[in-house]
Amino acid sequence: MAEYSVASLERLIEQFERLPGIGHKSAVRLAYYVLSMKESEAEKFADSIIDAHKKIHYCKICCNLTDKDVCSICADENRDRSIICVVQDPKDVTTFERTKELNATYHVLHGLLSPLNGCTPDMLHTKELLQRLNNDEVKEVIMAMDGTVEGEATSIYLSKLIKPLGIKVTRLAYGIPVGADLQYTDEITLSRSLELRTEI
Amino acid sequence: MAEYSVASLERLIEQFERLPGIGHKSAVRLAYYVLSMKESEAEKFADSIIDAHKKIHYCKICCNLTDKDVCSICADENRDRSIICVVQDPKDVTTFERTKELNATYHVLHGLLSPLNGCTPDMLHTKELLQRLNNDEVKEVIMAMDGTVEGEATSIYLSKLIKPLGIKVTRLAYGIPVGADLQYTDEITLSRSLELRTEI
Distance (Å, rounded) from C-alpha B73 to C-alpha B64? Predict the structure, then answer.
């Protein structure tokens, strides 16, 4: 009894399975969905993958993703160039932009220091950051990394490089999330929020 | 303050969002993952979409998906051609093949009767099924549809067309799933399993 299989379908399922968070069952569902699309739709999907890959590269100033020479934030003349917000990856830029609080520029490291995972200082885009600090314009660098050990280590490493240049280095405040239930907040977060308590 | 956006990235995210079960956050994650792939990997992904779409079509005998003229099951000489198992869609063929119980051929309807959703008899591949029944070889047609109202309706509709040809029409047994907890089994399933009770 020969097994039923369709090579091109198997290949498509395999490709979907490689994506993060997509298991075999989801991959099968997605592959069948792609087959049910109109041919023009499937071509559009495939094109968008190639297109994004071809056109998107790092902004030559802040290392964020862009399809131009310089990203739209670095190109924006209304941005305050005296503040640079340093983040781990491009997703974080989008997250900060959603708050509409920060009219600064960004610098994307594309990673955090993590010697155990093989991520060393020379693999982060710190050289580009230090080059940007060489002109007088920058007054403050905000370390906006994850509240993890790696985020902490990266903040400290960078601040040691930047402080000697006479530039103010700040970090995001630790504290309880807005709307949080105190009984579910861990002790370290609580003690940090006590340290940083503000007057009402 | 200009908003940060990268057109090709937005397009890629949009494309992922159209897939079933993929929300905005997953689409963003997948798009960034695609960007992080090597160029050759991304090309392979895009190619597999186009390729599957170009090469896969319906088997001219059973309407299952195949990249050949006739699918590997219909082409298999060891299959019992006297039994045809009628299923809703290609995924069901794979499901039955996994049981390794059925050495028959299949027929894929690509849908179930559902007048409310606009699926009428002429939209199912019943014409091809009836043509297959015109030779003397077929002795039994198994209705292997979902246990839903639509599955039921399709089974009854087809059996009314097939019985007059003097061919045996059977259906999957209703009953409790293996390993099921009786207290969570609905009454209709329970009464059906009582009706079909077998001697030990």
Answer: 9
CA dihedral A37, A43, A46, A49 (to 10 degrees): -120
CA distances (Å), origin B154, targets A48, A73, B84, B118, B122:
39, 58, 16, 14, 12
Q: How much is the mean pLDDT over chain A? A: 89
Distance CA B27, CA A51 (A): 16
Q: What are the two backbone dihedrals, phi and then psi, of residue B107, each rounded to the nearest 5 degrees?
A: -140, 125
Where does B65-199 sit in CATH, by number?
A: 3.40.1360.10
Chain B residues in contact with A12 (beta carbon < 8 A): 48-49, 51-52
CB contact under 8 A, B52 and A9: yes
User: What is the C-alpha to C-alpha distance for residues B43 and B47, in angstroms, rounded to an integer?
Assistant: 6
Instruction: Give residue A21's pLDDT.
Output: 93
Taking CB atoms and an 8 Å limit, are A52 and B37 in contact across chains?
A: no
Of B1, B51, B91, the CB nearest to A78: B1
Quick one: which H or E segment has residue A148? none
Q: What's the pLDDT at A2?
A: 53
Closest Cβ–Cβ partner in B21, B35, B48 for A12: B48
- CATH code of the domain occupying B7-55: 1.10.8.420
Closest CB to B48: pick one of A3, A11, A50: A11
Confidence (pLDDT) at A4: 67
Contact B3 A72 (CB under 8 A): yes
Distance in angstroms (rounded) separating the CA atoms of residues A64 and B63: 49
Q: Domain ranges for chain A, please list them.
A: 7-55, 65-199
pLDDT of residue A78: 92
Contact in structure between A65 and B12 (CB atoms under 8 Å): no
Query: What mean pLDDT comes out for the span B7-13?
Result: 91
Q: Could you count the other beta carbons within 10 Å of the beta carbon of residue B62?
A: 25
SS3 A176: coil
Contact B52 A12 (CB under 8 A): yes
pLDDT for the residue B63: 94
| Chain B positions in Cβ-Cβ contact with residue A29 (cut-off 8 Å) | 20-21
pLDDT of B95 strictly over 80: yes
Whole-model pTM over 0.80: no
Give the chain A residue whose CA is nearest to the CA of B96.
A4
